[in-house]
Amino acid sequence: MKKIVVILILVFMFGCEEIINEQNITNDTLNLLAPSENVILNTGATIIFNWEALNGATDYQFQIAKPNFASASQILKDTLIQRTDFMIDSLPVNNYEWRVMALNSAYETVYTTNGFVVVEP
Questions:
Q1: Do residues 69 and 97 lie in contact, with contact meaning Cβ atoms separated by under 8 Å?
Q2: What's the pLDDT band for 4 if we cut at 50, 70, 90?
């Protein structure tokens, strides 16, 4: 019985090692770079979304909603990526919001959100 308890303790300790060593990023905030809040973009243009890397983050949850997340008629993109940019070929005329959340194996930040508008050139 003692052997089983020792084995269980060792498995638990080594299984939790990654969580114990993971940086707590829950109080950190992402800095969204572009498109900035309330920017006006032309339809047909490639849109590159950029944000600053967050120390301790391994992944980023990227989302775009139309017209916004509070009253979304459509979530256009919802993807987990490991870089600090995302590209979309073009979006039709409308209001949009985009947001990003940083994650690691144990923690996540809250979403940081920017709104933008796509118009005819």
A1: yes
A2: low
Decide if 121 contacts 76 (C-beta within 8 A). Answer: no
* pLDDT (tens digit per residue) in 20-44: 689 999 999 999 999 999 999 999 9
H or E element, residue 72: none
In this prediction, residue 1 carries a pLDDT of 62
**Cβ count near 102 (within 10 Å):** 27
| CA distance readout (Å), 112 to 4, 15, 26, 41, 67 | 46, 31, 13, 20, 16
Question: How far is it, in rounded angstroms, from Cα 104 to Cα 3?
Answer: 34
Domains for the chain: give ranges and CATH numbers. Answer: 24-119 (2.60.40.10)
